[in-house]
């Protein structure tokens, strides 16, 4: 009986400790934070020359990708969706292009580009567009109208508004150990949070 208890305990510990480590070591990028909440009724339509530009601040080093939720109703948009990233001086520094036919309605989409090593605390802006699409091939992005620590303001239809697309920035970890540490910190924070202890 005691042997069974020990085996069960070891099995559970391996699930809690070893498996997350293995998965963490396989990660090439990690998110800086969770995606901000948004109202699904607040959306911006993108097609043709109608695009969206947004300012944000990178919360970590080694910026590698920007991700957000995109609507592509009935997969109507099968055109190129272009992401252009600019520095504070409006210089184009990165570009990522995806095809609408690979984006299902409501997908959380990542625009991945070469790493920007010294990105911590720096202000950037990006433009998201699908210039070859017509009005019947519209994609939509959600937006929040209150600025956050990283989401500052956006331009749509030649007007500037506070807030912007509820994005998530992804970063290349400096070391595998750092990823493992972050995974366990997040895991134990959730386990010890008051919400997780409610009955």
Description:
The structure is a single chain. This protein has 199 residues and is of the alpha+beta class. The relative contact order is 0.25. Helices cover 21% and strands 36% of the residues. It has one domain (30-171): Jelly Rolls (Sandwich). It has 2 helices and 12 strands; from the N terminus they run H-E-E-E-E-E-E-E-E-E-E-E-E-H. The protein has helices at residues 2-25, 176-192; strands at 30-31, 43-46, 52-57, 63-71, 80-86, 92-99, 107-116, 123-129, 139-142, 151-156, 159-162, 168-171. Strands 1, 2, 4, 7, 9 and 12 form a 6-stranded antiparallel β-sheet that branches. It has a 6-stranded antiparallel β-sheet with strand order 6-5-8-3-10-11, with no helix packed on it. Strand 5 and strand 6 (92-99) form a beta hairpin.
CATH topology: Jelly Rolls
What is the terminal separation in angstroms? 30 Å
The low-pLDDT segments are: none
Strand content: 35-45%
Summed up, the helix count is: 2
Q: What is the string of SSEs from the N terminus onward?
A: HEEEEEEEEEEEEH
Which helices and strands appear, and what pairs or packs with what?
Elements: H1 2-25, E1 30-31, E2 43-46, E3 52-57, E4 63-71, E5 80-86, E6 92-99, E7 107-116, E8 123-129, E9 139-142, E10 151-156, E11 159-162, E12 168-171, H2 176-192
Quick tags:
single chain; 199 residues; alpha+beta; Jelly Rolls; 6-stranded antiparallel beta sheet; 2 helices; 12 strands; 36% strand; elongated
Structure summarized in a few sentences:
By secondary structure, the protein is α+β, with helices and mostly antiparallel strands. The chain has one domain: Jelly Rolls (Sandwich).
């Amino acid at each position: 009986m005691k042997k069974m208890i020990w085996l069960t305990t070891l099995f559970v510990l391996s699930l809690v400790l070893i498996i997350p480590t293995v998965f963490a070591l396989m990660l090439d990028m990690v998110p800086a934070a969770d995606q901000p909440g948004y109202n699904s009724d607040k959306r911006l339509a993108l097609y043709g020359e109608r695009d969206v530009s947004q300012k944000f601040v990178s919360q970590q080093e080694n910026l590698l990708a920007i991700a957000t939720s995109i609507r592509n109703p009935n997969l109507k948009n099968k055109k190129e969706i272009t992401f252009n990233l600019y520095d504070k001086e409006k210089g184009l520094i990165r570009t990522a292009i995806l095809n609408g036919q690979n984006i299902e309605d409501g997908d959380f989409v990542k625009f991945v580009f070469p790493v920007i090593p010294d990105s911590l605390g720096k202000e950037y802006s990006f433009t998201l567009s699908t210039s070859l699409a017509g009005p019947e091939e519209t994609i939509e992005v959600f937006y929040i109208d209150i600025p956050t620590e990283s989401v500052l303001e956006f331009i749509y239809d030649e007007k500037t508004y506070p807030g912007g697309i509820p994005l998530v920035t992804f970063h290349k970890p400096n070391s595998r150990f750092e990823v493992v540490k972050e995974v366990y910190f997040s895991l134990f924070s959730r386990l010890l949070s008051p919400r997780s202890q409610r009955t």
